[in-house]
Design goal:
Order of helices and strands: EEEEEEEHEHEHEEEEEEHHEHEEHHEEEH
Strand content: 15-25%
Number of strands: 21
CATH class of the largest domain: Alpha Beta
Largest sheet: 7 strands, mixed
CATH topology of the largest domain: Rossmann fold
Oligomer: single chain
CATH architecture of the largest domain: 3-Layer(aba) Sandwich
Length: 440
């Protein structure tokens, strides 16, 4: 291993075991060394290193140099950046058909483009193989050559490619597969000369909505226990699934989903189940509040934006006076949050009440988002599809920008934020206003 600065403690992104970096295991490289105690006969053997070559690489039992790392407890892979940079964990959850997979694909696609171009931040895959499912989603939505192609995403499954199976003696446990990204300042970023102080490994968890049904999370199937550990929770909320809200949408929205009786869900029940599990995992009293932030991502903004008197939302960032990098505008996001909370409290008060009994209200942010920027249409299978050329997300990247700027560990955040003097005149103006009218 090269000499480099290491974190004091590594958290396995799979089983959440904590260990010092010198205790990390390795994955055998030699083609004869298959068969692992935890992962089965088709996986390469994991081992604690005892021999090294002159370059510091661990040698397996056949003397082959090894590069891939593994957790000493569950034996699943741990990207090397986890040993060198602090990790930021984010959990995304929502009901079936809330548009969670579309939003996650749009979020990552937008971050890949926006962070290097505007914020002087490298945003790249820390483990391309682990991110393969997300690559497929991004390609399906954004890499089609023909604008008229109909595209859609397959549903997040509760088994298969989304999960790892690990054996502990006679017990088999499923762990969700996270997505990994490395975030580092470059170029004109104010911390480019000392990147180690703000660079982070971003670890994102996703779950099928069915995982939050009562009884779905068991000791042998702890697929949602990452919720209690994550630095930030992101609840994808689809107001178009709410019967009361639909009444106000059906005369103003072209989205067929607001008239489809199959697209209905009691989402406050799902949120209450998440709250119950998190409090149980953390050992909190029933009336206690979780101490981590909750972002309520109010999805399909394109379907209900007219209720707020707006079309598209303005970008909540501005260029720093030096011109070298963008600065996030938390005031605009918080202004939008206040307006969205007011709207939800009017139409769906149970959701607001459930959220605020789960997390301290001051740590809840309501963010309007649209993964596609427009409504779907019926496809050949009578399902919902989008024209590839019409996909134009709105604020899909904003939740993660806000989370990294406000909730990241350390004294400094990698996403610069504040109100530069050039923007001070309109600092107090919200991005949206409840009840009508565009912000002046």
């Amino acid at each position: 291993m090269q000499h480099t600065s290491l974190v004091k403690e590594v958290t396995c992104p799979n089983c959440w075991e904590r260990f010092p970096p010198e205790r990390v295991w390795y994955v055998s490289s030699h083609h004869d060394l298959f068969g692992d105690l935890r992962l089965g006969p088709n996986e390469r053997r994991r081992f604690p290193p005892t021999r090294f070559d002159p370059e510091g690489r661990a040698l397996d039992a056949k003397g082959a140099p090894c590069h891939e790392l593994a957790c000493p407890r569950c034996h699943l892979g741990v990207p090397r950046v986890f040993l060198e940079r602090p990790a930021f964990f984010a959990s995304v959850f929502g009901s079936p058909k809330s548009g969670k997979s579309y939003l996650l694909a749009s979020m990552i696609h937008r971050l890949r483009k926006l962070l290097p171009k505007s914020f002087a931040i490298d945003f790249s895959d820390a483990d391309p193989q682990a991110n393969a499912v997300l690559h497929e989603y991004e390609d399906e939505l954004f890499a089609h050559g023909k604008p008229d192609d109909l595209v859609h995403l397959k549903k997040t499954d509760v088994t298969g490619d989304w999960y790892h199976e690990v054996t502990y003696g006679e017990k088999r446990i499923l762990y969700p597969k996270p997505f990994f990204f490395q975030i580092s300042p470059v170029g004109s970023h104010p911390y480019a000369a000392k990147p180690a102080s703000v660079a982070r490994t971003l670890c994102v968890y996703d779950n099928a909505g069915e995982s939050f049904q009562p009884g779905a999370d068991r000791p042998d199937n702890p697929v949602t226990q990452h919720l209690a550990k994550s630095n930030c929770l992101m609840f994808v909320y689809d107001p178009a699934q709410e019967p009361e809200f639909r009444k106000h949408l059906q005369n103003i929205s072209e989205d067929e989903q607001v008239r489809d009786p199959a697209v209905l869900s009691r989402q406050e029940v799902l949120l209450a189940e998440v709250a119950r599990r998190v409090k149980s995992y953390r050992g909190l009293a029933v009336n206690a509040r979780h101490d981590r932030p909750l972002l309520v991502l109010v999805n399909k903004y394109d379907a209900w934006q007219k209720l707020l008197g707006r079309e598209r939302l303005p970008d909540p960032w501005t260029m720093h006076p030096t011109g070298g990098f963008a600065v996030l505008r938390p005031d605009m996001i918080q202004g939008a949050s206040a307006a969205i909370r007011q709207m939800l409290h009017e139409y769906m008060p149970a959701v607001v009440a459930t959220a605020e009994s789960f997390v301290e209200p001051s740590r809840i942010v309501y963010v309007p988002v649209s993964a596609t920027g427009g409504p779907p249409q019926r496809g050949p299978d009578n399902g919902y599809w989008h024209r590839a050329g019409s996909i134009n997300p709105m604020w899909a990247e904003v939740p993660m920008l806000y989370a990294l700027s406000q909730f990241g560990s350390g004294s400094a955040a990698i996403i610069p934020h504040g109100v530069p003097r050039s923007a001070a005149a309109d600092a107090a103006k919200p991005a949206v206003e409840a009840g009508g009218g565009e912000s002046p």
